[in-house]
Amino acid sequence: MRNRSTKRLSSFGLTMALCCVYMSGNAQADQSPANLLAARYNTRAHQAATALQTDVTVQGTVTDENGMGLPGVTVVLKGTSRGTATDVNGHFSIAVPESGAVLILSYIGYENQEVAVDNQTTLNISLRPDAEALQEVVVVGYGTQKKSDLTGAVTAISSEDFVKGQVTTPEQLITGKVAGVQITSNGGAPGSGGRIRIRSGSSLNANNDPLIVIDGVPLDSRSISGSANPLSFINPNDIASFNILKDASAAAIYGSRAANGVIIITTKKGELGEKLKVSLNSTTSLSTIRKQVDVLSADELRTAVGQYASEGNKGLLGDANTNWQDQIFQDAMTYDNNLTLTGAYKKLPYRVSVGYLDQEGVLKTSSLERTSGSISLTPSLLDDHLKITLNVQAAINKNRFAQQGAIGAAVAFDPTQPVYADNEFGGYFEWTDANGNPNTLAPRNPLSMLEQREDKSTVKRSIGNILLDYKLPFIPELHANLNLGYDISSSEGSIFQPATLASVFVQGGSLSEYEQSKDSKLLDFYLNYVKELPDLNSRIDATAGYSYQDFITEEPSFAGMDAEGNVIPGQEANPFPFKTQYTLIGFFGRLNYSLLDRYLLTANIRRDGSSRFGPGNKWGTFPSLAFAWRINEESFLKDTPWLSELKLRLGYGVTGQQDILTGDYPYLARYTNGDLKTQYQFGDQYYSTLRPEGYDANIKWEETQTINAGLDFGILNGKLSGSIDVYKKKTKDLLAVISVPAGTNLTNRILTNVGNIENKGLEAVLSYTAISNENLTWDISANATFNKSEITNLSKVKDETSVGIEAGDAISGGVGNHVQIHTVGYRPYTFYVYKQVYDQNGNPIEGVYADLNSDGIINAQDRYRYKSPEAQVYLGFSSQLAYNNWNLNFVLRGNIGNYMYNNVNSGNGVYKNLTYPNYLTNLTSDVLETGFNNNQFFSDYYVQNASFLRMENINLGYNFGKILNDKANLRLSVSVQNVFVITKYTGLDPEIASGIDNNFYPNPRVFSFGLNLDI
């Protein structure tokens, strides 16, 4: 009774409402109450009739234009929420009514298609490519462009082309993949990542790293305390693509920060209309040492001691046979697990991910534990007039850093001694003096250095932004964009060394603590106007905007303490906490103009202001201009069947450099906090000191001018494609540290603008689809880069007598010895050494060098500039082979012309090391060839050819397709990284960024097993 009354009330209410609408005069003829009621009841009757129909199962295959099955195509029964997706081979199965059923098929890059079932039980459907959607879109500064419309040197790398296997930091994804981009490992320590250079460096004393932009947020390039790599916080699993702006015509939109190129990282997003997909990616890896330093065995050392050591030292030999490198290195496990939810709720696409990385280092006690998360929301509101993108990346890194000095100690420690001993140094064998204390001159027990030292940090970082893109309803071609972003991080850490550790035994151990926080805020606002001008066969795309970014760094001071937490006298906390801040303000504009879809023009300009420079030098202007000609669209080539692309590009631009490594106030006379150990004592009180810093009131931007010419081509219907670029970069007003007369400044060395540097280069890229059919595809690609750097000026006043400026890291041996130099007419960091003389058997003669100036004396004037750490040629090669459900990928890369100074041999390969009283050291096996008694630190004998060919990665995978009743897709893979290295270099690794091999943390060989499950 109640249900019947309810229905009556509902019908009466609906009738009255319809009558009111009709009588209001706004109802159309077909919206009369009778018609609307009839439509309502007809719909109900149709639904009832449909419900009575018997469902039938329809199976089908969806293919692309070449007949190959398309996986992941969405298949939906029209008018319902019933749907499915094709499997890895393009097959699907769906239940539909016996009659009247229509299927809607959708797939990214293809046109949506409706197919009437018409009583069929088997369907074969071919989707048509969406010509507009298939145009590859490249992210550039403050916007996007179709790849075909690019005028500058821009490279896009998507996730399909990333390096596979154990990848823990973002830059590893593109190693060896991009011409003109060199990624050199910072070592094998967990999270250490690599050094990135785009077309070599443009500076000597400023930062040479490219600007990194993540989802529109430029990152602070300076790493936070307690972290070895600023990119180690970004989970590679969240990255969708890299877009690399290599020349000034493309990068000038970033002005004062673009001299070293720009890398724009875009993270993965959800897609509108996408069903919920849960993805689990898990990788388990085993890392092993590929090679050890070649040192004397215990028996070889006993023989050498018998010949070269004093009688007293001969008695120091032990009975053990210890391989100290085996003691400090280990096989290390890594576990990398990621869970992702991707989909769309109505008009709200979303992606949420969490990741956990637990990585051990091959050097004992080193490790990284990263917990990361990301959220991306991309809704559209107001009839798609307002598009919102919300991105948040966050991570907590827990690091333990190993004492890398243990690597050098393992090379030098006496292999005839045992690892452990019954003593007060934690039970580890140590050399002692006459008083029983640790010998201050002797090497330390390597294992003790690792196991008795705790160097830990916890670092938190979050990067995020919200982008609002509003299409103005009264001018639909005009979009207003607002980007509000942040990059915040904080760290805390401590280094604890117990009183039993030999290096701090006398002072009772040590405890040092540190904290740091960094806060960056971003505001971008810009207008974008895109207009088709059919009457002029033209298209314009104009952007103009404003940018503000502020950076604050703060560090409190902590006292130096012993292992018990007692403050060490003279190391009280400094009363002045450290705080620094700088601000960047920019106005920018860009115009893209296309004529006849063949002639393309791009003009950029940016006006930047930086608080790092004084009055008169705060502002800089950075313009660029580029032109492209799509030659294949001309009438004389348009109908050429074998030519799919031929585009000529020419560009010129000016970019700047303001990322000074010596602080944020180089133009001010200032005092900074002195070291804790420089405190003065008055009575029983200790007082902190302030130290003067050198300054230059007229310091200004470095400025880089770049000319680029490029040719993009594609033939054989795109099977063979590539590009060739030639470029020339000139940087003026180089920032360099020079000496100044005493009394003219607060110090005798200051950072100032004094020189110029020039880079010339050629890049070539070639991609070829060797095989493409239903069962087998094979894509190969190769890239090559030639680059030559030369310093063209290095002083404000021409000085013919100047030999140059010492450069690079000080070598181990002596005090402050350098073997590298900056000199006009040579590459930066050229080695500056003596020319070794050899005997008739090709062996070096100790202490005999060539008299290059023929004055009859061997002195500093006979040193010469010999080779460089920088390679002349960089090579990369990739192969992607897929056969049915199998795939095999590998990456090779190589350097030609780079040299390395082997400081391990120069410091340890001499018999003199056996003569130090009261302790013994081991020697490198190189001494058996040279017979050197004394160190020859400045001999070019130790500058070795480090050209190499490395197999970076090889990956084999199998896709099982649908499992669990077609509800999930499973893929398994195995991979090896750092597979092999072919080189003449005798050290651990031929690829060290500084060019000085001094106990480098070795890059391990990594074996990985991966599982990818999509539900």
- Broad shape: globular
Low-confidence parts: 1-52
- Mind summarizing the main beta sheet? 22 strands, antiparallel, barrel
User: From the 3D coordinates, which CATH architecture of the domain at 137-267 would you assign?
Assistant: Beta Complex
Gyration radius over CA: 34 Å
Count of extended strands:
52
Distance between the termini: 47 Å
Mean pLDDT across the residues is 88
CATH homology-level superfamily of the domain at 137-267: TonB-dependent receptor, plug domain
In CATH, what is the class of the domain at 137-267? Answer: Mainly Beta
Secondary structure class reads mainly beta
CATH topology of the domain at 137-267: Ferric Hydroxamate Uptake Protein, Chain A, domain 1
How much helix is in the residues?
Answer: under 10%
Question: Percent of residues in beta strands?
Answer: over 45%
Number of helices: 10
